[in-house]
Automatic annotation (TrEMBL):
CDD domains: 4HBT. This is Acyl-CoA thioesterase. It comes from the Bacteria. Keywords: Hydrolase. One of its GO terms (molecular function) is fatty acyl-CoA hydrolase activity. SUPFAM superfamilies: Thioesterase/thiol ester dehydrase-isomerase. Belongs to the 4-hydroxybenzoyl-CoA thioesterase family. InterPro entries: 4-hydroxybenzoyl-CoA_TE, HB-CoA_thioesterase_AS, HotDog_dom_sf, YbgC/YbaW.
Amino acid sequence: METRNSHQINFRVYAEHTDMMGIVYHANYLCFFERARTEMIRSSGLSLTMLAKYDCHFAINEVLLRYRYPAYLDDLLSVITKTSNIKSCSMVFDQVMHNQDNKLICEAQISVVCVNNKMKPRRLPENLFKSDS
């Protein structure tokens, strides 16, 4: 179930994502998680292009990945993204990836800082990912 603080995206693993053994190449997990974060922002009614027009960008300042089980060619993956530790200029994306058998594949904690075009911290967009309470 999606809430304003939770988003799920599903996608398939293609040959372009894998090494010669048919296992997802480790750096591609970052791409999968980036796609999930971008779609979460889009589901909130915004886009990265729209935010850029308002002098707002997300700069990653810390990444923690925990590889739990390999993903393989043709797997159907699901990424659930939640936000936590939301502050005036920063937040954390907590992400988990499972395969079609609900096996935990990878976990990520991605910390971002909201910056302007001069790379100076700026406030997060108002009500972005805040719960309806």
